[in-house]
Amino acid sequence: xxxxxxxxxxxxxxxxxxxxxxxxxxxxxxxxxxxxxxxxxxxxxxxxxxxxxxxxxxxxxxxxxxxxxxxxxxxxxxxx
Length: 80
Known about the structure:
Blueprint: H1 4-17, H2 20-30, H3 35-42, H4 46-60, H5 65-74
Helix pairs in contact: 2-4, 3-4, 4-5
C-alpha cells in the first residue's frame, strides 16, 4: 500500500517545481494545443514554447505530452 503522506509530498513537489508559465503551458497541452498554438496564445516564440514543454517533461518525469497531461490530471496539478 502506498504511504498517503509520501504521495501527498510527491504531488506538492511536482506542483511547486513547475513555474507559473509552465503551468499555463501545461493547461494548453491539456487542451491538445500544439507548440505553435501555445506560442500564439501566450505570446512567445515556438522555440520558447517547446523549451517549456521540455522542462515540463523533465520536472514531471514523463516522456511525452500524453504522459504529462495524464500526470497533471492524476496529481491535480491541472483540474478539469
